[in-house]
Design goal:
The protein is α+β, with helices and mostly antiparallel strands. The protein is globular. The protein folds into five domains: about 220 residues, no CATH class; about 35 residues, no CATH class; about 45 residues; about 90 residues, Phosphorylase Kinase, domain 1 (2-Layer Sandwich); about 250 residues, Transferase(Phosphotransferase) domain 1 (Transferase(Phosphotransferase), domain 1, Orthogonal Bundle). The C terminus is likely disordered. The strands form eight sheets. It has a seven-stranded mixed β-sheet. One of its GO terms (cellular component) is plasma membrane. This is LEAF RUST 10 DISEASE-RESISTANCEUS RECEPTOR-LIKE PROTEIN KINASE-like 1.1. It is found in: Membrane. One of its GO terms (molecular function) is ATP binding.
């Protein structure tokens, strides 16, 4: 499905005519979900030829050869000679697994034509087809376009529906696609409602199915013509395998490879191999001494163990423990210090996990409403898979929640045994849904979140996070869909599956990619290191959502403002608060709401700083929010604590207004200014 020379010239001609102008954001219509795994669907222009009408569309399964054995290092390039990041045309901040085609051995996905028009081209795997790389909207995703498929659609060629697409899956990287729709190729026609509107598979029982294909669609453009239903745009999500991640980002820094049998191996350069040989030599040299020392230690510990084993105090202690844990975990009452439920008990409580009981879907499982035999309403999380990774998240959430007690953290009632047929977690049932649902979801039309309620939500969430950090826990996935609200709109922070214990004797935690697009600390993608300031950044996005009622990621916004954090920063540095704050809050008729909302916006700005040292701690955030709520944040405190550090745009604005920067605390920055100064100067 590559591009011919004629098709490339046609795309370039469209670019010259302005039909591919990336700034035409009004032609873009996006759909995002709770975890941003919904498809990106875009409206086609009716006045222009249907070739790349928009630069931010969706993608579907592509046909790539499985010749992945060619992922090798022919030129011997390694991490030491490869650039950590680079830009190519409209794509910026590219890093592994991307690489320039001139240094294809530095990565897995090759990019070429950085200076070519209309867009650079990308090859997902060596030996595969080339596509136009339109944009990298957020991490681990890339938007592609295939002109050949577009030509088939615009020319109404039935061949467009005969393509059977599949994604390659190498031992180094895997690809998934979004926005796919099932099409049934049947042996007879039907005058019934078009299949696209049907949601129940039973509707097709009367028809003989020949085959099933998956294609990307835009259901809003469907007018009875299937060629107008399909879109030729691609959104690809990639994920490095654990082997490749540890190989490339490990201490020695290797390259990911596949041999002729498609088995993974990690290639290290000669220097690394030599260094490893030196270590092996040293290890062998000290091996004799070390072995003797270990033998002595083993003998000593065995002696200590035997001595303790037969001591009276040890016997009594063991007896007490056996009394506490006398029940088998499958039929007993405790596990990790929480009650254990049988699978059948929770299956009955959720009515066999009926789809009508679903409360929500997350990245790791589905949550169901249930009612226990004792009358308690509960929320039951059913993890998607029963494997080592899910077991780690299962145990991690139990371990963290059992050691924490806070009014604004969700309560864990119990779980199933780790040997149960499925991993199930049982929580208290919070009946008022999530904060995301009230801000920009199905409950947003109720307008139930007045400004005082939003301030309380911000304070209670900040208090819960400050408590977590004081308990050496990093949440790692702070977002509005993980903030539950009870009947009084009190906060319950939930979902600790990917949270991490943070010992107080370390400065950071190194970990593989985790979190939700739109909320992830940008520094995290540079070094994959977590600190408590990572939660502060995510909470800054939550604060912006509270004052704007906008989602964290919205494809309807300009390409540079798809992420709400970028959108808010652009508005705040220009002091355009009226374009950021939700007008339904009534700030136009209540100056107190306006003052508090702008103060919260400035606090959010501090939380969203790229430099982690500039961000406040959650304790400081909590104190500032309380001062804003009680109107104790006077102008002097606002200038010192919630001031806005200068950005390039703000410096130009200051020069145009001839406003002098105010001095600020040494702990933050050398220059500061506040929007109130610009406003007063202008007036």
């Amino acid at each position: 499905m590559g591009l011919t020379n004629e098709e490339e010239e046609e795309v370039a001609w469209k670019m010259g005519k302005g039909l591919l102008n990336p700034s035409w954001s009004e032609n873009v219509k996006g759909i995002t979900g709770v975890i941003f795994r919904q498809a990106l669907i875009f409206r086609k222009s009716s006045s222009a030829p249907k070739l790349l009408d928009s630069v931010e569309p969706a993608r579907y399964i592509v046909d790539l050869p499985l010749n992945i054995a060619s992922i090798s290092t022919a030129n011997g390039l390694t991490n030491s000679t490869c650039r950590k990041s680079f830009s190519c045309g409209n794509l910026t901040d590219l890093s592994f697994p991307f690489s320039l085609s001139t240094q294809s051995d530095c990565g897995i996905m090759s990019i070429s034509g950085c200076d070519a028009k209309p867009f650079p081209r990308i090859q997902l795997l060596p030996g595969g087809d080339w596509y136009y790389a339109l944009q990298k909207p957020f991490n681990y995703t890339v938007l592609l376009a295939d002109a050949k498929l577009n030509t088939m659609l615009t020319q109404h060629k039935c061949q467009a529906f005969n393509n059977k697409f599949s994604l390659p899956d190498s031992p180094s990287i895997s690809f998934t696609t979004l926005s796919l729709h099932n099409f049934f190729k049947c042996s007879s026609n039907s005058n019934n409602t078009p299949y696209i509107t049907q949601k129940m598979s039973a509707h097709f029982n009367d028809y003989e199915l020949f085959s099933l294909i998956k294609l990307p669609i835009d259901p809003r453009s469907y007018d009875g013509d299937l060629f107008n239903l399909l879109v030729p745009y691609f959104l690809v999500e990639w994920k490095l395998s654990d082997d490749c991640y540890h190989c490339h980002y490990g201490g020695d820094g290797g390259q990911c490879h596949a041999d002729k049998t498609n088995k993974f191996y990690c290639h290290k350069d000669a220097k690394t191999t030599k260094r490893r040989a030196v270590w092996l030599f040293l290890a062998a040299g000290f091996g004799g001494v070390g072995l003797a020392l270990i033998t002595c230690l083993v003998v000593y510990f065995i002696w200590c163990y035997q001595k303790r084993k037969f001591s009276p105090s040890r016997f009594l202690s063991t007896k007490k423990l056996s009394d506490i844990f006398k029940h088998d975990v499958e039929i007993g009452s405790i596990y990790f210090c929480v009650p254990v439920f049988s699978y059948s008990e929770l299956e009955e409580a959720t009515n066999d996990f009926n789809s009508s009981r679903v409360l929500g879907d997350g990245g790791f499982g589905t949550v169901y409403y249930g009612k226990l035999k004792d009358g308690r309403d509960v929320a039951v999380k059913r993890l998607y898979e029963h494997n080592c990774k899910r077991m780690e998240q299962f145990v991690n959430e139990i371990e963290i929640l059992t050691r924490l007690r806070h009014n604004n953290l969700v309560t864990l009632y119990g779980c199933t045994s780790s040997r149960s047929r499925e991993l199930l977690l049982v929580y208290e049932y919070i009946l008022n849904g999530t904060l995301a649902d009230h801000l920009h979801g199905q409950r947003a039309k109720q307008l139930s979140l007045a400004w005082p309620i939003r301030m309380n939500i911000a304070i209670e969430t900040a208090g819960a996070l400050a408590y977590l950090h004081a308990s050496d826990v990093i949440h790692c996935d702070v977002k509005t869909s993980n903030i539950l609200l009870d009947h009084n709109f009190s906060v319950k922070v939930a979902d600790f599956g990917i949270s991490r214990l943070f010992p107080n004797d370390v400065s950071h935690i190194s970990t593989a990619p985790r979190g939700t697009p739109g909320y992830i600390d940008p520094k995290y993608h540079e070094c994959y290191q977590l600190t408590s300031k990572s939660d502060v950044y995510s909470f800054g996005v939550v604060l912006v959502e509270l004052i704007s009622s906008m989602p964290a990621v919205d494809m309807n916004r300009h390409s540079q403002e798809i992420n709400l954090a970028n959108f808010a920063i652009n508005k705040i540095v220009k002091c355009a608060f009226n374009e950021l704050i939700d007008p339904s809050l009534g700030f136009d008729s209540d100056t107190k709401i306006w003052e508090m909302a702008t103060s919260v916006a400035e606090l959010a700005f501090l939380c969203l700083q790229t430099d982690r040292d500039v961000r406040p701690t959650m304790v400081e955030v909590l104190d500032i929010l309380k001062e804003i709520q009680t109107s104790e944040l006077d102008n002097e405190k606002r200038a010192k604590i919630v001031a806005v550090p200068p950005f390039p745009e703000s410096e130009n604005l200051l020069l145009s207004k001839q406003v002098k920067s105010l001095p600020s605390p040494n702990s933050l920055s050398d220059k500061w200014f506040t929007c109130s100064d610009i406003t007063s100067t202008t007036s």
